Amino acid sequence: MVCSQCGTAVEIEADSTIEQWARNIATDHGFTLTGHDIELYGTCGKCTAKAQPAAHQE
Questions:
Q1: Averaged over 22-42, what is the pLDDT?
Q2: pTM for this one?
Q3: Would you kindly state where each structural domain of the chain is located, as residue ranges?
């Protein structure tokens, strides 16, 4: 998973559902799956906190 703001990355483990999905996609398109990379993007907690306006600053 990669933060789209700062680039911080963490590795996540795929469960069997994702593995089966990848095999099914390959088979459906006539491929034999030999490997895969899946990247998820989002905003990490630090960047999310920075983007939040300070509460009750007036």
A1: 95
A2: 0.65
A3: 2-30+41-51
Q: Which pLDDT value is given to residue 52?
A: 84
Is 47 annotated among the ligand-binding residues?
A: yes
Which residues, in sequence order, are CB contacts of 12 under 8 Å at separation 6+?
1, 40
Q: Classify 52 as helix, strand or coil.
A: coil
Q: State yes or no: 6 annotated in a binding site.
A: yes
> What residue type is assigned to position 40 of the chain?
L
CA distance 41 to 13: 15
Q: Is 3 annotated as a binding residue?
A: yes
Q: Is there a binding annotation on residue 36? A: yes
Do 2 and 39 touch, CB atoms closer than 8 A? yes
